[in-house]
Amino acid sequence: MTDIFEKSKRTHYSNEIGPELAGETVKITGWVHEIRDLGGIVFVLIRDKNGITQLTAPSKKLSEEMMADVRAARKETIITVTGTVQESAKAPNGVEIIPSNIDVINVSKLPLPLDPTEKVDAEMDTRLDARFMDIRKHDVSAIFKIKNEILHTARNYFYDHDFTEINTPKLVASATEGGTELFPITYFEKEAFLGQSPQLYKQMMMATGLDNVFEIGQIFRAEEHDTLRHLNEALSMDAEMSFRSHEDVMDLLEDLIKNILSNVESNCQSELEDLGHELDIPKEAFPKVTYDEVVDIVNSQDVEMEYGEDLNRAAEKVLGDTMGSYYFITEWPSAIKPFYVMPLCDDPEKSTAFDLMYRDLELSSGSQRIHCYDLLLDQFEKKDLNPDSFT
Amino acid sequence: MTDIFEKSKRTHYSNEIGPELAGETVKITGWVHEIRDLGGIVFVLIRDKNGITQLTAPSKKLSEEMMADVRAARKETIITVTGTVQESAKAPNGVEIIPSNIDVINVSKLPLPLDPTEKVDAEMDTRLDARFMDIRKHDVSAIFKIKNEILHTARNYFYDHDFTEINTPKLVASATEGGTELFPITYFEKEAFLGQSPQLYKQMMMATGLDNVFEIGQIFRAEEHDTLRHLNEALSMDAEMSFRSHEDVMDLLEDLIKNILSNVESNCQSELEDLGHELDIPKEAFPKVTYDEVVDIVNSQDVEMEYGEDLNRAAEKVLGDTMGSYYFITEWPSAIKPFYVMPLCDDPEKSTAFDLMYRDLELSSGSQRIHCYDLLLDQFEKKDLNPDSFT
């Protein structure tokens, strides 16, 4: 067993070792992915975060001791291999490593709960029970890496555009916004709730003079959904800008989405390959359809939708098929939008609210907020809300 | 009243307008901070996110209408001013703006709940009741801006060092780590809890092969503290690395802290000035004291501390006075550290656990984790924990 306090377990990740390193000594650490023992030669595939590298052990060239070490390798055992890089057309990345030293860091317990080589499919229950092994599969860890790229790009976008990052409370005294069920908590002797959204907090921050704020954080919704489209705990990206119109917000959102897509395409090529997914990156401006047009489109496709209704699943589906890719729905009726949404100046029955859609999926929504005290009071009344519960 | 959909409310923030812009036309938007009406001339200080700019209105040069607009300004009203920059030795930033247009965006309601010019001090209750106004004070918003710089630096540090950002669940089925009280939630028909720390999740991520992960997110602790040092909801920075020793982790932590301090010093000069605070940036390596040495230091200062005890407040205080600035406490007794902490190879009664301290304040703690199955089982037994509750 190797010294666990040893300074470094690798000189390279698998994806960094190619034919250009032929003849050099490298050290990699990873999980034994596959072993093929042909008698005179043993092949071991070693998997790490970024790829797979082949260890090749020809018995003629290696000591008996070394061969015994190689043969003792079993699937998912963690080993550190030091060795010489050699070109090999048949191996992953076009190279194999001829070992000069092998350290076993931890031995796996067989049988494995699931097979990370994916030759044997696992049921969802098995995958969740052995989630730590499920994530070892590159097509599963690809999702984590792409999510990381999305978060990285989004945060830097906000930092670069002079937004201040805020962290709003997740423990809240009362439900104020409506629209969803909240999880109740026992907060010492009182009842409290888990926040459904930082919405009202970020809007209040605008009154502080910070101008632009954002938060990427968890939200909690106690809805008993049984769909693929709703979660009780989710990550939400929220941004708020002062002295801006809803058009400005749509511009920013579109630019942000395009930045994210472009960075994922540039920086997550191998992850997209692992997922077998090609990104749909729109070059043109996202089209905008008004809510009125949406009602017409949906009805023209033989799905019923009354004016003033939200989109149901059937409506979302036919609209998604018609619009394809990314688009905004604008000018929602004021009646079905929250109290803080600014009506349109020249037609107050319609509002500055918009949704950003990708096909039939709502990605984001926004609006200009009401900044006039009297208009806000009017809205409280129209929506049957008590202003006192917001103070 | 101006058109609220107008494209841009400002060309500059206050701190961007200096004598080098003399003669140019600028547009600023902000809150009326102060008004001084001398009859023939009116001075209005306009405060925005980044500073204060003086609007100067000499009645001889401006129309009666414009003078009426200026005189109608009241404290905390939001206005947009377009005008010509003119040098003025007495004004903030050495410039004043002679207005050519004034738009009132929103009129404040008097009397104000508190005075953002801070000529009148406010009680803490008043400040919290009118928190949106409290944050208008530059010394209060400075804290938000510095926090933003800290988060920005920390996240980029992790991104740059090949960490994957993760988001672990905050709704958890049971308390597994101990050491604190949890908030109970009603999760549909079941009881659940709010997460006290992503600790075990990030450790489990190491078994997935992602190697380095981090999370910056909210944690919840249901302790009835009445101190300035504990919060029931707080933001926690967590990182975890595979195939690394506790020495490596301390190196990373020290480097991260130095990066944060250096970026705050470079990018938050005016915020530090607003707070009247000078940063203590250590140039040397953070000193390390072992737990044994800590016990000696504390006892030598006439504060009692038994071997095997955690540091109480009195002990933290004398230790902080002795050590000053940043330092690590290393080699904590294994007995008072969590089950997953790796003992020292050559002295298993002591552990790889460390704390990072700033004077008498614990900033962070860490350790190498146990990666050997049998040793971990041993530890469960020693700590009277049931392994089944961790599966």
Main traits of this protein?
homodimer, 391 residues, OB fold (Dihydrolipoamide Acetyltransferase, E2P), BirA Bifunctional Protein, domain 2, five-stranded mixed β-barrel, four-stranded mixed beta sheet, disordered N terminus
Summarize the structure.
Two copies of one chain form a homodimer. Chain A is built from ten helices and 17 strands. By secondary structure, chain A is α+β, with helices and mostly antiparallel strands.
Enumerate the spans of chain A where pLDDT stays under 50 for 5 or more consecutive residues. Answer: 1-5
Coarse morphology of chain A:
elongated
State the CATH superfamily name of the largest domain in chain A.
Bira Bifunctional Protein, Domain 2
CATH class of the largest domain in chain A, named Alpha Beta
**DSSP strand (E) fraction of chain A?**
25-35%
Q: How many extended strands of chain A?
A: 17
Report the oligomer. Answer: homodimer
Helix and strand run of chain A: EEEHEEHHHEEEEHEEHHEHHEEEEEH
What proportion of the residues of chain A is helical, as a percent range? 25-40%
What is the fold named in CATH at topology level of the largest domain in chain A? BirA Bifunctional Protein, domain 2
What is the strand arrangement across the widest sheet of chain A?
Answer: 1-2-3-5-4
Describe the structure.
The structure is a homodimer of 391-residue chains. The first copy, chain A, is α+β, with helices and mostly antiparallel strands and 391 residues long. Chain A has three domains: 2-106, OB fold (Dihydrolipoamide Acetyltransferase, E2P), CATH 2.40.50; 137-254, Bira Bifunctional Protein, Domain 2 (BirA Bifunctional Protein, domain 2); 282-391, Bira Bifunctional Protein, Domain 2 (BirA Bifunctional Protein, domain 2). Chain A has helices at residues 64-72, 124-129, 131-134, 138-160, 199-206, 246-267, 269-275, 291-300, 313-323, 373-382; strands at residues 25-37, 41-48, 51-58, 78-87, 95-106, 164-165, 171-172, 184-187, 190-194, 212-220, 233-241, 288-290, 326-330, 343-344, 347-351, 354-358, 361-366. In chain A, the strands form five sheets. The first copy, chain A, has a five-stranded mixed β-barrel. Chain A has a four-stranded mixed beta sheet with strand order 12-13-16-17, with helices on both faces. Chain A has a three-stranded mixed beta sheet with strand order 6-10-11. In chain A, strand 16 (354-358) and strand 17 form a beta hairpin. The longest helix of chain A has 23 residues, at 138-160. Chain A is elongated. The termini of chain A are far apart. Residues 1-5 of chain A have low confidence and may be disordered.
